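Reminder to self: tokens first, then the designed residues, so the page reads top to bottom the way the pipeline ran.
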């Protein structure tokens, strides 16, 4: 047996030198030594490309819940930390929470590392307004406002009206490069809250394109004629929709997209307030807004081509169809509409709309070419498309039909009948399951069949309603729990002081206080600056900046303790990781 094995080994050819394993896994140094190829051997340019790909993937969503990618890669090694700290683009997303002690210091560090690049600023403020909070908010304004000319996005979120008033009241400087402004008043239950005009951004917002308000009146910002193209209004105050009327002091000449969500209106103003005139409006999205029928009836939008309706009853459907007919001439008001996207049920169950109501709806938008119905129950709708023995069919120009949740048999019957009466559907979009069904009968109708895309994702304006919800709201309503700062956001527990205390109690080396944990950053920054030497002058200067952030806590903890605690995070090179937020995020993530 041994002889046979030896004979086989002799007969096996030697692999070419180019395929030798050591050629793929090892590198020969200038001194002749052979070392394994590791991440540290890669050129900095290649490391930057790898890190940037991971960073972009995580930051596709607004306020990602995961540990920030730039923090994770900073913990790989001393060398990776130097590389990451020198990539200014990694530090352009600034998340400041006034309930987290070290958050303001970290925001200052991000502002320094991002250099002169445009930044996205996200500000969270607490549920309750207390005097210490006012001081913290004013301190945060002192940190952020000197960089207001670099703001690309500003998002403000709080359940406290006083917190929002204090922060917005401090925005006196200009933000001429600000493109998106997002203010969200969560947790409120009184839709009659009045937001009196507040003077902010005295130099104007000439670059503003997107305005997103939750529970806040647009007149609160005292912007007379904003140059915005996208307007999102969620839970708009009941008295405030009149502020969208165009008059001598206010116009929306550039507005192309409007989203109205959960807006119940009681006060509309009078004719002296002007009309709802949007000369450039392309798309209108209405969700849970039963009282906005009057808005549609008085809307003047000659270029409106997309209408998205979600969570509507049959009665509301009739009202919408009626409001879309000119009362004087009896002709359709919105003859330019080509795209209709309807989700009757939305996130709640509502009964199917009858075929007669669908026909009334179809008469209001006769030139529609693309229709998408997102519901499961589409039998009545499909029945309305073939008429009842008429020589013509509704929506004669209909060419594309998207039914991502409908059954195959219902779809096939309608497609065939439309072809028989001479008004065929040319393009059909169905679910993946229907598309993959081998028994498909769509070929006989000679139409192009594809998988339906998510119409919300393809809608030009952002319509992800889950992004508008307060994460604490449902929990607080169900349990009546009195939220402390520990429980402000279950999904973001890594940002709370209480979670820091929990982690510190486990780590032992970091159980003193917030000040003690901040000193970890000090001692480590000093170590990295010393070790880095001349390899990265910029890195050394940034570490100095980091030291300035936490200079008040320099002596709170010994460097040895810092190295020991960081060793728990990264065994190979833990002592070289500097950020207190990095340590906090990683410990929370592992917990």
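Designed residues (591 positions):
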């Amino acid at each position: 047996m041994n002889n046979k094995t030896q004979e086989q080994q002799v007969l096996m050819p030697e692999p070419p030198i180019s395929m030798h394993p050591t050629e793929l896994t090892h590198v020969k140094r200038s001194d002749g030594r052979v070392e394994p190829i590791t991440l540290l051997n890669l050129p900095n340019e290649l490391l930057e490309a790898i890190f940037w790909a991971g960073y972009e993937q995580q930051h596709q969503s607004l306020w990602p819940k995961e540990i920030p990618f730039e923090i994770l890669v900073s913990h790989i090694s001393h060398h990776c930390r130097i590389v990451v700290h020198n990539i200014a683009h990694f530090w352009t997303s600034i998340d400041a929470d006034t309930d987290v002690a070290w958050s303001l210091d970290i925001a200052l560090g991000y502002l320094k590392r991002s250099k002169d690049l445009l930044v996205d600023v996200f500000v969270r403020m607490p549920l309750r307004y207390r005097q210490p909070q006012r001081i913290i908010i004013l301190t945060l304004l002192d940190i952020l406002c000197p960089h207001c000319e670099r703001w690309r996005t500003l998002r403000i979120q709080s359940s406290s009206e006083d917190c929002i008033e204090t922060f917005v009241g401090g925005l006196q400087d200009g933000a001429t490069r600000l493109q998106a402004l997002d203010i969200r008043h969560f947790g409120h239950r009184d839709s009659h809250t009045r937001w009196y005009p507040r003077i902010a951004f005295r130099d104007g917002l000439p670059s503003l394109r997107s305005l997103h308000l939750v529970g806040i009146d647009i007149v609160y910002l005292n912007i007379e004629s904003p140059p915005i193209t996208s307007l999102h209004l969620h839970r708009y105050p009941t008295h405030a929709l009149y502020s969208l009327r165009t008059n001598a002091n206010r116009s929306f000449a550039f507005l192309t997209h409007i989203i109205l969500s959960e807006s119940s209106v009681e006060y509309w103003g009078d004719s002296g307030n002007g009309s709802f005139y949007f000369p450039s409006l392309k798309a209108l999205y209405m969700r849970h807004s039963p009282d906005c029928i009057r808005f549609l009836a008085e809307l003047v939008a000659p270029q409106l081509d997309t209408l998205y309706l979600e969570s509507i009853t049959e009665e509301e459907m009739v009202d919408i169809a009626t409001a879309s007919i000119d009362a004087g001439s009896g002709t359709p008001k919105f003859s330019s509409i080509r795209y209709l996207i309807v989700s009757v049920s939305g996130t709640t169950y509502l009964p199917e709309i009858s075929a007669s109501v669908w026909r009334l709806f179809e008469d209001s938008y006769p030139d529609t070419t693309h229709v998408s119905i997102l519901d499961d129950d589409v039998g009545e709708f499909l029945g309305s498309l073939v008429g009842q023995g008429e020589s013509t069919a509704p929506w004669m120009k209909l060419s594309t039909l998207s039914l991502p949740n409908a059954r195959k048999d219902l779809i096939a019957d309608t497609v065939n009948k439309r072809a028989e009466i001479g008004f065929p559907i040319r393009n059909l979009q169905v679910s993946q399951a229907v598309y993959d069904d081998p028994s498909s009968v769509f070929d006989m109708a000679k139409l192009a069949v594809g998988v339906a895309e998510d119409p919300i994702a393809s809608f030009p304006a952002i319509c992800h309603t889950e992004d508008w919800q307060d994460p604490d709201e449902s929990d607080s309503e169900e349990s009546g729990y009195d939220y402390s700062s520990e429980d402000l956001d279950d999904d973001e527990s890594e940002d709370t002081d209480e979670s820091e205390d929990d982690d510190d109690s486990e780590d032992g080396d970091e159980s003193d206080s917030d000040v003690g944990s901040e000193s970890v950053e000090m001692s480590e920054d000093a170590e990295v600056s010393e070790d880095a030497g001349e390899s990265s002058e910029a890195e050394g200067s940034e570490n100095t900046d980091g030291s300035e952030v936490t200079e008040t806590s320099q002596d709170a903890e010994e460097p040895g303790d810092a190295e020991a605690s960081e060793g728990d995070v990264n065994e190979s090179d833990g002592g070289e990781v500097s950020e207190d937020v990095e340590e906090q995020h990683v410990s929370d993530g592992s917990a």
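The two ends are 54 Å apart (CA to CA).
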